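Researcher: We plan to redesign the surface later, but first we want a full-length starting point. Tokens attached.
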């Protein structure tokens, strides 16, 4: 899958900016949001191909709403915990990664075709 735009949704600015810097070498445009309302607005207006979202603090519900509103948009949950995996599958997430995963694992998940769920451990 060719990915042109990615949206990173995470309240940790250091993580968000670090991931943006890494991904900008591989993707045309890397957008960021620090909260769920911002994520919904950016997703609606700029239509990223892939959304990487932390499921904590409302992120799981935002991911569910994004999948419902934009079924072709790939949503991958990215967390330090594995406890959201079942919920990710239930909402139809396209992937679940632990934040300690390698750049190669992250890129593979981003490029994976829609409908093929993958989980990766750190």
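Model: Full-length starting sequence:
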């Amino acid at each position: 899958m060719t990915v042109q735009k990615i949206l990173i949704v995470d309240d940790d600015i250091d993580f968000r900016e670090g991931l943006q810097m890494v991904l900008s070498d591989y993707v045309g445009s890397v957008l960021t949001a620090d909260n769920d309302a911002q994520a919904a607005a950016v997703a609606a207006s700029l239509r990223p191909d892939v959304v990487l979202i932390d499921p904590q603090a409302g992120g799981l519900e935002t991911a569910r709403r994004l999948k419902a509103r934009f079924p072709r948009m790939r949503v991958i949950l990215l967390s330090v915990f594995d406890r959201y995996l079942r919920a990710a599958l239930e909402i139809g997430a396209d992937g679940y990664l632990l934040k300690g995963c390698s750049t190669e694992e992250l890129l593979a998940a981003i490029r994976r075709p829609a409908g093929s769920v993958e989980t990766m451990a750190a």
